[in-house]
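Protocol step 4 of 6: structure prediction from sequence.
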Amino acid sequence: MSVTEKELGEFRAQVSAWMKDNKPADPGFLLPQSFMEVGSEQQLEFLREWQHKMWAAGYLGMAWPREYGGGGVEPVFQTIADQEMRRHLVPICFNIIGLGWAGPLIVDTGTEQEKVRYLKGILSAEDIWCQGFSEPDNGSDLGNAQIRAVRDGDEYVINGTKIWTTMGNYAKYMILLARTNPNTERKYDGLSFFLSPMKIEGIEARPIQKLTGEYGFTETFFTDARIPADCIMGEEGEGWKIAMKTLQYERGAEAGAAGGHSFVRVVIDDLIEQLGAYSRDGEPLLQDSLVRDQLVKLIIEEKALSLGDRRAGVGPLTTDYPFSLPLSSKLRITEYARRMRQFAISLQGAAGGLYVGDDEAPQGGFWQRAYFNSFSATIGGGTSQVQTNIVGEHILGLPK
């Protein structure tokens, strides 16, 4: 059944009113700028309660089936809810690996048992998920994953190490890519995909401190860890295919996410507002012709990114390179975010060297922290270099 513009308008007003009335007050401690900076139990519990509250109100998982905790409505309603979350600057949804990657994968390809077991806990924030793809010795070479999963009766025995495991120390489950057969002709054929429990003997997640001083990532060690054999998704040897499907969700090329915004909204308008307080040689910084030229270029780029998202949904406008916009969105958005934040710091002059905790840091060091944290997004889900290769090979048809 089609949805009318009137219905959508009324829904937007409803969501907006709810967000205004229910937006949490400042908790008095530093909140993460993205799901990759959740580094304390205090932050975790605050965000867990907020996500549960939004789900209970019906604003998460709106397009997922009702029988698994979702809302069973058209995806456009979730899009509107997400837009209002960003507009009202409410706290982030931290369980994004479950909401945006593992959950959609299970909705689309999981068994009935998997849907019943996992989906509601993802939405309610009861069950936190992490991702076990990258390894210390292989980086972005996902196809060369070496962690071993050996079948032993009704269990798999896992040995090896994963790294950059976001919230691995808090997670209840991991989407895990492991090698079940080391002797295949093609390395991709020996990989399998697991929905692995984390709170079991033999799995240790050690937090990694980042440049910002915050945590969020872990290195995860598997030492004779035994997981049930029914944790495998699909069949042995199908891990690469399933992992590539998962990465399409992560890189924005597939729909199906449960919703929620995973990053603090930082847009060019925020930068312009900040510039109003700065001056150079006694003149407002916004009057500087070079600053204005650089600023206009960023404004144009941000607008193009926004319009590109809209264009991606209009088939006749993408016939030249189908899927070019979704497949390149992760590269374009993360690199823009990094450069825009870097520009903001450069305009602070000597004060740009101050950080969170320095009394004289402009805006409490917000832009410095945002800049350092932006690198996480240019690495996670495939580095910008890997993303550039994807554009070259899969969109432009260039040779490997």
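Step 5 (inspection) to follow. Residues 131-250 form a domain with the Butyryl-CoA Dehydrogenase, subunit A; domain 2 fold (CATH 2.40.110.10).
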